[in-house]
Structures are given as structure tokens and as C-alpha cells.
Amino acid sequence: MLKKRLEKGELSIFDDVVKVITEMAISEINGVEVSTSFFQQKILEKVNRNNRNIFINSSNDGITISLKVGVRYGLELSVVLSELQQVVKNHVELYTNFSVKEVNVLVDQIIVNE
Q1: Which domains does the chain have, with CATH numbers?
Q2: Given 22, 51, 94, 101, which residue has the most CB atoms within 10 angstroms?
Q3: What is the C-alpha separation between 49 and 51, in angstroms, rounded?
Q4: Helix (H) or strand (E) holding 31
Q5: Cα gap 99→102, rounded to integer Å
């Protein structure tokens, strides 16, 4: 949970909120999806949560976000992932007012159109 002391009280944001913001940012990048196995996808359809491969670690010096994603075949990984890191960082900082220290991305799937 993210916590910040404000003038008139404390601001607390659950990690799941940051995960949803991150997922929305990921959805803006063409050809990138949060990774899910077929089994995970079936379970996620039932519980309506698609952010199980987004990990949040918060400390006094900022938030570290780690992602497992799939990338569409044919895209230049370094370009797409650099854009993804920047978009996630911008979204989370804009909507939470907390500093993002790192956005770590692990590509564990290549998405091939059938």
C-alpha cells in the first residue's frame, strides 16, 4: 500500500489501484498485453481481474513496478518496451502523485496472429 502524509491527514492507495492504472496504461500500447496463460485466462474471466502479472513494490524513494507482458510478433521490442515503460510511469505518477522509480518489464510471450 502506498502512503503519504498530507497537511490534513494521510493518503493511502492500495496496490490493486496502482495495478489497474498500470493495466490501463498497458492497454494504450498497440501489440502489448499483460501475460496470462490459458488456465489463468479462464480463471480471470470468472473473477474479472487481469492484473496478476503486475507487481508493485513501494518504498520511501518511490514505486517499483514489475510487469510480465506478451508482445505481438513483428514489433521492435526495444522501441515498444521503452514506450511501455514511459507510459506506465507517466500514468501512475499522474494519477497517484507518487514517484515511480523503476518499471521493469519481462516479455514472457510472443503473440502470433492466427
Answers
A1: 7-111 (3.30.70.1350)
A2: 22
A3: 6
A4: none
A5: 9
